[in-house]
């Protein structure tokens, strides 16, 4: 009966120690669920799980601790203690060792200092902590061997404790020896099993982390791919074998919403594509999808839907491993804007050809006009003075026609301006005498407001002189006597502004939008090329020109020259 009772107690201790095999995986799973969202954890970083699982197991074993034949202490709390030390090192081992010693003091009625030293395996603690770093990196068999290497002397020390404590004690009973041997072997086997269960739980965690990592990676890649497809200007929708929608991009949804603006992606997924994309006819869409599901790729076909032109194409979707057809993709590309731009480009090319022909013709016209003017001067010298008035009118008109031709040629050539570093104030100073002479003849004044902070710019001096002269003379012609023309420069962020302002009658709002159109003029004898030429000059300098005018108060033209272009030209 004593042997059976001892076997029962040993099995009870094995069950108590074996609870670690259930507590650790359960705690590990809970720990991962709680802390995994905060940061990615490695399997060996769960010291808290090891401490708690080992501590609970040590408490259970201590609470049910007893002895074999009232001599040999029976407490397998040493198994979770040793495992906790080997896996957790000194950070885990020291708290667990303290708990084990405390439990021995509380639950052992025959507690002695020597017994504490013998019953808890205390001499092996330093060895366990020293082996911990290499233990965690080793394979399973090496870990079990190291545990047994420490556990065997500890168990021998525990079973020999009665003899060490009482040297005169005679323990030669055969039954006792067999029970002790069974106790040691069972402890070794249980310890190896616990290590195996821990490694199994950790490996399962590693595999789970890898699978979740791969799943998250593919999920992120799928999200990025969907964003790319949504951003493309091509309308795309994929369908399964039944022709039901499996995915659709934003561009296609915008096309679908022309029929029902309240539709969302979730509303169309899983439904036949012809329910939503039937603006060309369901039979036509069905035909193309059936052909794609049969493995036939139908190339681009130009179709017209309302006022829009589309290229439509269908292609099969296949499994890259098996080659089986798993669906089809339908794509639309809106080429309405492209067709419009192509048409405008053809018109521009025709207009450019007409402009080149006109420039060539007007260039040839100037030669006979120069000859006519020369002969008119000779005729004037030999004619009576009474006819001088008529000769003057004819030559003025010839000069005016020649000026129109020059302006037209400057506008039509649109040549690349050769630029150098010039100060805008230098160009204005060179023009000042000419402008003051014109202003004095008209009884007008000129005011110069020049900002000293204005830097040098990359300019074509000849063209800028023409720009300032044209705008200034336009302002003078718009003013009456005692009018004032203001020429101002200022540095504004990354631009140098040139403002030419007059105090004339102003320009009506309805005419301001057309000021820079060729051949549009507000003057009785204007050609409509002056401001168009000014715009061309400003654009060749990568600048901007704008106008502000109020009837009865005057007009101001503002030209912005980018400073960055000038600095880039200086480097």
UniProtKB/TrEMBL annotation:
InterPro entries (alphabetical) = HATPase_C_sf, HATPase_dom, His_kinase_dom, HisK_dim/P_dom, HisK_dim/P_sf, PAS, PAS-like_dom_sf, Sig_transdc_His_kin-like_C
Task: Give every Histidine kinase domain span.
Answer: 360-565
- Name the SMART domains for this protein: HATPase_c, HisKA
**What keywords would UniProt list here?**
ATP-binding, Kinase, Membrane, Nucleotide-binding, Phosphoprotein, Transferase, Transmembrane, Transmembrane helix, Two-component regulatory system
Known EC number:
2.7.13.3
Q: Please name one Pfam family that this protein belongs to.
A: HATPase_c
Instruction: Locate the transmembrane regions by residue number.
Output: 6-28, 48-72, 111-132, 144-164, 176-198
Q: What class of enzyme is it?
A: transferase
Catalysed conversion reaction:
ATP + protein L-histidine = ADP + protein N-phospho-L-histidine
Q: Can the keyword Kinase be found in this entry's annotation?
A: yes
Q: Which residues form the PAS domain?
A: 221-296
* Protein's recorded name: histidine kinase
Give the species this sequence originates from: Paenibacillus cineris
